[in-house]
Hints:
CATH architecture of the largest domain: 3-Layer(aba) Sandwich
Bound molecules: FE(4)-NI(1)-S(5) CLUSTER with Oxygen, iron/sulfur cluster
Helix content: 40-55%
Strand content: 5-15%
Strand order of the largest sheet: 6-5-4-7-8-9
Largest sheet: 6 strands, parallel
CATH class of the largest domain: Alpha Beta
Distance between the termini: 36 Å
Shape: globular
Oligomer: single chain
Amino acid sequence: MHDMRTIAEDSRLLLKKAEKDGIETVWDRFEAQQPSCGYCEMGLSCRICVMGPCRIDPFGEGPQKGVCGADADIIVARNLCRMIAAGAASHSDHGRDLVEVLEAVSEGRAPGYSIRDEQKLKHLAIEYGIAIEGKQILKIAGELAYAMQEDFGTRKKELTFVKRAPAKRQEIWKKIGITPRGIDRETSEMMHRTHMGVDNGWLSLLLQGMRNALSDGWGGAMIASEVSDILYGTPMPVQTSANVGVLKADHVNIVVHGHNPVVSEMILLACQTTELVDLAKQKGAKGINLAGVCCTGNELLMRHGVAMAGNHLTTELVLATGAVEMMIVDYQCIMPAIASVAACYHTKMISTSDKAHFPGMVHREFHPDNAKVLAIELIKEAIENFECRGNVYIPTEPVASIGGCSVEAILKVLGGTPTPFIDAIKAGLIRGAVGIVGCNNPRIRQDYGHVTLTKRLIENDILVIDTGCVAVATAKAGLKMPESVKYAGAGLAKVCTQLGVPPVFHIGSCVDNVRILVLLSALANTLGVDISDLPVAGAAPEWYSEKAVAIGVYFVASGVYTVLGPMPPITGSMNVVNLLTQGLNDVVGATFAVEPDPEKAAVLIRRHIEGKRQKLGLDSMTI
Ligand code: BF8
Ligand code: SF4
């Protein structure tokens, strides 16, 4: 049975252990929810106001309108747009937290934090029109934080980073009126428009949905990614390892979970202090072992090579090892069930964000001014907890992997410009590139979508760039070492071998999907074309979250054809389905496709890439 739930060996073995220990997991709860509500699956239920809740009968026999008169198109579009708004808000609020840390650093209110990439700080300040000549670095940081905060509000006509997009793309956005103005403004307007009795045009709603998503991709998430680099360093290639085997039976194990490096970076610093390492040794451990899960894990992996214990569906199972002294969480993708798993073992569960409380966790709130001290206190408590440990079961050996493939790192490997990469594409050695992003979802066998699609693409000479939980899946599957070229086609293998890089690049956490936008803009600008002309695509084979919806929509609105695994809740409106899968081609030059089978998704993507190659006048194969 567990084989059907996951392809990851560590998850499979730990599921057996969890069963033995009487632990309920996400898969059990998923099964208990079946069959799920058909109205909700089709997007046909509405609970926006209390004249309802309402539902539309998809068979045409029952009601075709809600109490207010909203039809299927309106209800489906509104529901989707509210998903985009929630996703954009999540990334963007994460970005705001980083800007506030940057501001606190500039004012000397954040002990332990610093400016680690002055170069990037200066570049961004210039991009924001700030004069930097003769100014102290902290002064520049303060002015940049202020200017970025302006991007969140309503004082501008367009976001600063919109200028990063190719000119042709900016023109398209302008022409159809979806250039994002303020980060918070677009989310706020989206929520306004979807209130009962405001925007009842399914098309105009979806256009605002795209503008909202763009305010995430070219706004809030881009700020989150860039400011993280300023504060914690721009990633460069780094050796790491992945799967539950990164936990060490003879060490104090601490796991960070969530998304924002504001907390996890301080935890890392605390774990490295000699005093605490000595304390761990006094308590009979060999040292302190910090590991990550989900995206805050990716943040630490990218910048410091911190090992990765697992992705979304492994988060409960990591605790079932009995080897974790403390799990420290911030926000996003943290299942509220997780503390009840920890309660079966000695693991202490700590929540840290004023925005995110969880049942069964001890709440210890992190702010820039107390983070350093609090991190040390927590690690001490984790060390004290080592002696409470019971039996430990760490069933697998970790798999070696390379992370840290920021755009800067990729350009460095290429000698400073994208030209060698473009030459390899022109020569047909590399057919194209695909960004595979997103989550795990119990609807799909864990990691099967990610790993199968990645393998099919690289064996057909398509470079894969991944983030988030996909990046963890392919690391666990051993696809991220230079030796992994054995899985690649001859052309891609040749280029990767020459450069000494793997055929699958780990480009970061989910907010780092914006690095893909920056990379695509660089490629498009070098070729003098739009992003939608490039032989590239996006995919989210196992997505689950509202954030993933926002990401998918900003990919498509930026001109990237994107294939989803799970079907979004839109099938109740053929107008919405047709627009997203066909009509958008005429509007933004890209569409969505939905294909749960990764083998078939690979064929769709290869066809798309070969089509784009042909249009660009590059050689073409028939698939
Ligand atoms: O932001 S990939 S399950 S952990 S939502 Fe969450 Fe999805 Fe993982 Fe990261 Ni992204
Ligand atoms: Fe029903 Fe309209 Fe209210 Fe939605 S907004 S719950 S469709 S009355």
